[in-house]
Amino acid sequence: MARKGRAAILPNNIILLQNLVKRDPESYKEEFLQQYSHYESLRDIFMMNGMASTGSTGMANNGGDDGANRVKTNSVGVNGNASVGELVELIGFISQVCSCFPQQTANFTNELRQLLLEHHKTLPFELKEKILTSLTMLRNKGVITAEQLIQTLFPLLIAYSLQGNSLGLNSHAKELRKLIYNNLVTLLKNSNLGSKNQKLNKSTQAICFNLLDQPDSQGIWAAKLTRELWRRGIWDDSRTVEIMTQAALHNDAKIALSGIMFFLDADREREETFEENSDDEDDVDVDALKHRLEINKKTGKRAKKLKNAINTVKKRNNTKGQTNQNFLNFSAIHLLRDPQGFTERLFKEHLGGSKRNSKFDMNQRIAIMQLLSRLIGTHKLTVLGIYTYFLKYLTPKQTDVTKIMAASAQACHDLVPPETLQILVRKIADEFVSDGVANEVAAAGLNTIREICSRAPLAIEETLLQDLIEYKASKAKGVNMAAKSLLSLYRDIAPEMLKRKDRGKTATLDIIEKRNKNDLSKDIRLQYGVEQGIQNIQGLELLAKWKREHATEEQNDENDVNNWEIDSDHGSDVDGDWVTVDSDKEYNVDVDSSDDDDDYNKKNQNDSDSDLDLDLSGDEKETGIVDTPASAFQELAATRILTPADFAKLRELQTEDKVMKQMGYQGTASNNNEEIVDAAGLVGPVKYKQTREERIAKIMEGREGREKFGSRKGKREGGHSTTNREKQRKKNFVMMIHKRSVTGKQKMSLRDKQKVLRAHITKQKKRGH
Amino acid sequence: MGKSRKQKQKKKDFLKKKLKVGKKTDKPSNHTDTSFVAKSISLKNQHLEHETDLSKRLTLLRHHNATVRKETLQDYEKHLPDIIKTQLMTPLLTHAIPLICDDNLSVRDSLIELLEEVGKLDVHVLILHCNIFVLYINMAMTHIVPRIQMDSTRFLACLLRYCSEEVVRQAWLKLLNGLIGVLGWGIFGNNQASGALQTKKRDSKYTRVHLDVLTELIKDGCSDPELLSQEGENTEEVDDVNESFKPFMLADYPQPYEYLKLFARTLKKTKSTQTDILSGNVSMNNQDLDSRRTIFKDQYLSKIDKQVNSIIKDGGDCGKSANNLKQLLEELF
Predict the structure, then answer these.
(1) How close is the nearest chain A Cα to the Cα of B259, in Å?
(2) Which of 132-161 (B) contact A at CB < 8 A?
(3) ipTM of the modeled complex
(4) Among A752, B198, B241, B288, which residue carries the largest CB count within 10 Å?
(5) pTM
């Protein structure tokens, strides 16, 4: 009995000992030290085995007794296996409790790191896995710093992505890489949880930079990690973007592509992750738990559950608030330090040379073009080579040509010399827009030209423009629409380039007014390099418009100052309507203008100019206030000081405006270079003949949620059996003929008959027949 | 009538045969008789005799069944004289030595017997594998299962009997530390009250063995073997010449320059801590008699003295062994 009692106290397995040591480290110091030296001796055995195995392979090469050697290598390998479990257990134990004995185990973490770094080739997988997890645990306990852990993890990650290692027998390279990578990400996530750990971030980023400096393909891990961290919003500064620029310029195609895809997709990815995060919010339902606790039996376990749930919710709310605070919504392209240099190098290194091109296939090259054009468009850069580079690919037979067209449109902006763009536009017009090509091709060409011209109005010559606009008479809908949209674009930005009959009423009036103001001799055409944008407050025109609309309802104090202006607005109430009911009015204008044009043609030209001037001078004042940002800026910012309330309203209006835009309503034609040209939209609406299945599917879609039509005859409302009345009606006539109810009817007096009939009629009326 | 014989035969073929109780059914018409007669039959794959190739039975040393392991060990012991000079010895020992930490007592017992046998037949085999031995003995000394820990000294005793010099030279400090741990004397001394440990270590039967082994170890480690041998036979004339050359000759033990760690795989130690003083530059300290003596004197002597005295007071078998140890210590220091 006594023996047994003692055995109960004695720790004879490691888990038990771990428990005891954790509770009372001082008392069990001796046992711990014993286990620690056990670990040391096991480790030594391991080291020796590893050495023996390398030695024996050497021997096997020399030949000799083959059988004996085979046995020997076997034995060594298997000896290891036998004690792997023990060593794994011990390492786990020591790393669990080593924070209790910092002095004795000072070397422990260092040994683990060395084992992993220097002997990872000979260690079995379980052991490596255990060491990795123990190191992570030690980091969580604060025994080693995050920097130390990262310095261990990175070299391993690289070692295991090398060809030689991953091909080795039982190396489990893939699993290890996954494990290490996940460890890295969670480590960085955890250390950036509260506030950003700038020191760690910087050192890790430095490692990434170094990796990308090397010519081999190891940099892929740096790129992958950076992208992942960007996606999670952990890294969001310009250094991160700098890493990716280095990746994008890397010689290795894989790395370069990952960098390029980062710039193209990263922001979208990031938004998606944040949306997802906000979606899976209501995992823990605290209220339900509370309710359950009230109803069910009250146990400690349930109470604990509730407490945990509340804690997690609190924690989540905290972190969520912080991430929202920390998270700056700058897109990667905006954070570039030297966009011009980056773009030039990217173009030169990946698309420039003729030979090196072969390392990217077509899709990848398109991705590069997209990135380049987006960069050029966003930052208004000057990389002239790219426009001639596009020429090569702009043929209808090129695969994914719409993407290339979209990219080429994206790459245009008003600071590019018109000569270079004119070549591009000419090429598109020649290749895509002619009578010999399919409708979709022509539509795509026209739409691309429109996109280019909306960014750089001078990119097209007048004659070509006028030729292209002739396509508005085309019978194909896509082409027709594309030509019309090109026309309306030029009505807005440069009506003087259009033919007279195409200009439309308002545009013509504008021209005439301008001509009157200036000398007739002076050219009023658009010119390259003339600054047209005016510095303003974003969204101010919306505020101005709103003010004008609401000034009519409530008279402000400031009316005295702005009297004239508001008066004129009073008059132009219709004007406000014109903006909101856009499509209708546009149509009217079209009709008007054509009418006008006809009139003008009939009249003398000299007369018409002066006539118009006289006739429409009144009109002009009404349409004088146009909601351009420039005028709004002058109107508002110059005359009054904006209050915070104004700014609040402004923000509200801006969001409203954005929503409208999203829904496809083109309110103000603000030409934003950052908007991405949609490649799929370039082709325009294409309508093919539907198959039967499609047609039926569409019909069925329309019928969804409505009851079936058709006769209700013979259908009973609610389920019931036949009533007595119905049964009576169906009875055989001969059977009924002698019944009193029938014979009695014949014998009824006239008065009684009348009574019955009257009663019947009133009854029917009550029923509503 | 009038049917010919042929017709009758034909008809017979299609008649149903009547089965009768107690009589065998007729054999089918296409039956072949395969019986034959021979003087003797030899089947190659059913030899009842044991296989001669012992190397194939090495894996049985890791068999999950303890009896199989034990029997395999005994089997090898039986065959030892045949294989002692062959290449099989190295794999055998590398397989057998890990059994020092085997759970089963009988397996460990038979392993000791095997090792004794090996030692008797050829000491050099043991000397060659000395480092593996030391590692595993050391592991056993710190094993969490008490029985294995207790038995570790028996293995050490066996090893000391045959290659004491090599053992002491390789792992003097390691083994001393281990032994003291097994005895429960505590390396750091501040934990004497750790009750469970103490009572366990007082198991007198084992303590005697431990003490004997410790005595043996100290004797081997701190006394000069040459002196002992010279007491027996005096051959100074020949040795005289040798003595002057000796420092410049290659050492007569295996791996004389091991302490340089030219080919060893070890982990670097960056921080020097308390443990390092004891276990740090072990290999250097083990090398020669003088350093061993000084270290022992500095760090262990007083502690062992104290413990030995207390055991002597308790008396019994342990007391006797402790007394022996004390005498030895007095003699040496």
Answers:
(1) 15
(2) 132, 135-136, 138-139, 142-146
(3) 0.72
(4) B198
(5) 0.64
